[in-house]
Amino acid sequence: MNFRSLFPYFAALLSILIVTLFFFSFRNFILSDLSPVTLSFIIIVLLCASFWGTRPAIFAAIISILSLAYFFLKPIYSFQVSDPKDWFIIVMFFITAIVAGNLYTRAKGREEAEFAKKEIENLYKDLQKENDERKQIEMDLRARTDELTRSNEELEQFAYVASHDLQEPLRLVASFSQLLALHYKGKLDEEADKYIEYIVEAALRMQQLILDLLDYSRITTRGKEFAPVNSENVLNEAILNLKVVIGENNAIISHEPLPTIMGDYSQLVQLFQNLLSNAIKFCGDDQPNINISAEIEGDNWVFQVKDNGIGIEPQYHKRIFEVFERLHERSEYSGTGIGLAISKNIVERHGGRIWVESELNKGSTFYFTIPNRRK
Ligand code: ADP
Questions:
Q1: Alpha carbon distance 297, 227 (integer Å)
Q2: Mean pLDDT of the chain
Q3: Distance (Å) from CA 4 to ligand 1 centroid
Q4: Which distant-in-sequence residues (6+ apart) come within 8 Å of 155 by Cβ?
Q5: What's the angle, vertex CA 326, arms to CA 320 and CA 332, rounded to 5?
Q6: Atom of ligand 1 nearest to the CA of 274
Q7: Are 302 and 295 in contact (CB under 8 A)?
Q8: 305 or 102, greater pLDDT
Q9: 370 CB near ligand 1 (under 6 Å)
Q10: Most buried by CB count within 10 Å: which residue of 14, 71, 83, 231?
Q11: Which residues contact 36 (CB under 8 A, 6 or more apart)?
């Protein structure tokens, strides 16, 4: 019990004491008629009921009756009720306290119910608003997905046009410049020989870039449905495709047991092939030594392709996965800079992510995750 809950009783007691003191001072004048005293007490009981409910009102009624009996009813100071009229006053006090208190409780209950109803209504409105907002977001998302699909289709269309329509004139440029080189090398001056060489090189490189771009644009649009794939078979096929390069560079390739995963077989071959060919290409002066392994971590398989090559400075670890990003001159290392962008797209299409850990001259480890799905 704290002071807050006792306050109504104190307040009732104090007001009855004040009223008693007041009327008791004038008892000689009012003894013949007790109605002003009774009326004042009843008002206090009513006030207690309307502010604090039945209990403080009954308490005020008891104190009022005691005060009346002790100080005002005849014979005075004797604390006994001698007249049936006084009984009537006592009963009236209790009835007033109980009825008014009940009325207060009911009114409060109704008020609380009204309040709760309003709260529920507000809650419902909030929920409806949230639901509307969610629906709007879903609609926006669907619109954006449609837009993305459309722009992907456009990109694919563009890549097709680029590869098909642009390749034809490009092939002409390449073959005629090669013919020029063949027939006129040494017959014109040295400058002319150099220019022809540049043209041939540029045309061939452009052909390669266009083919790579076509590959890149087809990862999501032309991907096959996922099926269970044994990643050791995938690795073996990638190694077979790179047989010549591996032989030329005396590369050592080893691997730990690799899991069966859900994926697109040919894209996974391409992924391994890109990572392996980079590991061989960027080997520096040492014999390439590459190890492939996989570990389960939570819901994902984490694959590692570790090499002993030239390494990559930390500031380039993100950039190398963007289209046409390269860290070296073409004279140093060949390539168009799209291999890792394609690898990233493949991994993301499979629901995973790809990253590299490396330091300059300390080799590189490329990691990628593939969700461990059964179907
Ligand atoms: P490309 O091999 O055609 O240059 P990639 O997209 O495959 O293009 O690679 C981008 C760049 O990342 C490379 O030019 C190279 O600088 C760097 N890189 C990729 N793999 C390795 C690796 N295993 N070791 C060192 N550098 C690498």
A1: 21
A2: 88
A3: 76
A4: 217
A5: 135
A6: 7
A7: yes
A8: 305
A9: no
A10: 231
A11: 23, 30
